[in-house]
């Protein structure tokens, strides 16, 4: 078995495109997922249970079933509801819905970690419910839940690879097609693993640093 | 029209395939548990080499998407002369992947064991291995049970990815039926429901075990 | 330097010039101590003076930095090779200390095993005794410490005093030649201290060789053959209870005892130091 690295350099354009798409999917999926998660948590905690119950089911289903099956339902099952999504849209929607379920649990725990006395105090001063969420609860809980959010974001970056199965042209898919046309599986797949590994190590390290900085800010603002 | 008949017709086949899903995922968790225990012990040992290997292992298998790991084992193992059935390679890969997560979970458990319990075991003459298997592992498992159960449900879900390397299990069979009937929604929803039930059952069993162990972890 | 003087029998434990350092901190500074068969040695001293460290060195739960510890004539933990000492294998350590039992301040019962399993499991695993025989012996030991009726209980279902008695039964089941106790009653509620001390008194009466780190001066006065006062890592005084509690001139010891009595005797004419 010998390595022919030219296969990688010959196809650098496709590979770079794949990387860019992977990062785009990750960023879009995470951003929408965070919004979904926050909305779900707020509705679950601060509105009536007729809205909360179906959302609890949504969270349980997304957490209890494989991401791949969720993608299949959205992409292949979408047309049944008149939703003819491109692989890319279906993939990002899937990632956002999947991540949103986990994010909502994190946000929920965060809201519950803010002492109720503070909310009562704000209420007494006539501040509206949503304003309390925005100005009192969110800033405090973000510090506490940041590690969990970062962890989930890192997990989502790995799930982007699954989108290759519904033919999204992200990095894994690009590499696989190069591999199967050149039969240079070892070079291409090991390169792929290294890229993800390096990427995840960097993102994880960045998250750690961010947590430390925010943690310091929290300590200072309390003193 | 949503086709309930198709669901009823294909349910027996899907359930049969889901047995494989359970077998593959539980097997890989069992093997992964042994790997994870060894890697965790190495990571906490005095040996620098052991700690290095453990850190490398955990970082790699948690840092690379499982799908990529599966592709590597599927395409690259034959290149180095390892010709095993794809199901074996897939389960091995699942085991290595979950082993990395289990090592991290167990690490927390091992560190939570009061050192006096180990000293007591040394004083009555238990060997290093006996202490590991009779004291440390049972206690670490009791201390980390919720996380271990959660990791098991994650593996049930992750096992759907081995369909990509051609192993027949629930997801793969669902794909086969979906493409031949052109009615993907019904089939994938059914498959999803089966996964949901499997994981519900695992979670329930975990809660039963937890209440059974409550007496044995209190101090 | 030798501790072998007048008496005929070889000591079961012979500690010779032992030093123990943690980094730069010197915790034991040249300890000499011999414990003979059927003797009860009580080790007293202020907190942080090195009592636990000494006991843990004798059990080789800590590696001593310098000196020698002999258990029934065998050097513990090291082999001497041309004037240099070499750490021996864990299995060899386990062999030399197989006749040493240890009772911990925090009991250290394994929480996932019943009282019976706590006692029987080491017999099965370390001694290779068949399950039935191991359990029979374990039951006998639990009865001996008055807990035959609690054999099936998990540690979390037992009181502190009961847990400590299981701890003693677990050590006794291995048929040790010497029992080391590190403040066995210090983690107990006051009303539970008596039951544990009674078990220890019975053991002493049976002729068990014991080394007991304790703050129970009454127990030391009644049961000990030798009382050893450790201060700042050295043995500052030792002798019979009478010598140590009544006549000793060492000012640090007098201070220590005075503090103790001020804390513990609320009624003048207490029987503590008497007997
Ligand atoms: N593992 C250790 N590392 C560092 N210092 C220790 C350790 N164990 C004990 N010491 C120190 O050694 C001294 C004696 O401790 P110890 O033997 O437990 O005292 P005692 O049992 O007499 O109260 C204390 O100052 C303690 O801080
Ligand atoms: Mg002590």
Q: What's the short story on this structure?
A:
Chain B is mainly α and 219 residues long. Chain B has a single domain, classed as MetI-like fold. Chain B is 82% helix and 0% strand.
Tell me what you see in this structure.
The complex is a heterotrimer of chains A (223), B (219) and C (275). Chain A is mainly alpha-helical and 223 residues long. Chain A has helices at 6-10, 12-46, 49-64, 67-77, 87-113, 116-124, 129-159, 171-182, 185-222. The radius of gyration of chain A is 21 Å and the shape is flat. By secondary structure, chain B is mainly α. Chain B has a single domain, classed as MetI-like fold (Orthogonal Bundle), CATH 1.10.3720. In chain C, α3 (115-127) runs parallel beside α5 (160-173), α4 packs across α5 (160-173) and α5 (160-173) runs parallel beside α6. The chains are: A mainly alpha (223), B mainly alpha (219), C alpha/beta (275). Chains in contact: A-B, B-C.
Helices and strands of chain C, in N-to-C order? EEEHEEEEHEHHHEHEHEEHH
Instruction: Find the count of extended strands of chain C (DSSP E, 2+ residues).
Output: 12
Rg on CA atoms of chain C, Å: 19 Å
- Globally, the shape of chain A reads flat
Estimate the mean pLDDT confidence of chain C.
90
Strand order of the largest sheet of chain C: 8-9-10-3-11-12
Number of domains of chain A: 1
First CA to last CA of chain A: what distance? 62 Å
Percent range for β-strand residues of chain C = 15-25%
Estimate percent helicity of chain C: 25-40%
Biggest interface, chains and residue tallies: A-B, 35 and 40 residues
Number of helices of chain A: 9
Query: Helix- and strand-based class of chain A?
Result: mainly alpha
Quaternary class: heterotrimer
Highest CATH level, the class of chain A: Mainly Alpha
Query: Helices and strands of chain C: which structural class?
Result: alpha/beta
Distance between the termini of chain C: 34 Å
SSE blueprint and pairings:
The complex is a heterotrimer of chains A (223), B (219) and C (275).
Chain A: H1 6-10, H2 12-46, H3 49-64, H4 67-77, H5 87-113, H6 116-124, H7 129-159, H8 171-182, H9 185-222
Helix pairs in contact in A: 2-3, 2-5, 2-7, 2-8, 3-5, 4-5, 5-7, 6-7, 7-9, 8-9
Chain B: H1 4-43, H2 48-63, H3 66-76, H4 86-111, H5 115-123, H6 128-158, H7 170-181, H8 184-217
Helix pairs in contact in B: 1-2, 1-4, 1-6, 1-7, 1-8, 2-4, 3-4, 4-6, 5-6, 6-8, 7-8
Chain C: E1 13-22, E2 25-35, E3 40-44, H1 51-58, E4 66-71, E5 74-75, E6 78-81, E7 84-87, H2 90-96, E8 100-103, H3 115-127, H4 131-144, H5 160-173, E9 178-182, H6 190-205, E10 209-213, H7 217-223, E11 226-231, E12 234-239, H8 241-247, H9 251-264
Parallel strand pairs in C: 3-10, 3-11, 8-9, 9-10
Antiparallel strand pairs in C: 1-2, 1-4, 4-5, 6-7, 11-12
Helix pairs in contact in C: 3-4, 3-5, 4-5, 5-6
The complex binds adenosine-5'-diphosphate and magnesium ion.
Residues 51-52, 183 of chain C line the site of magnesium ion.
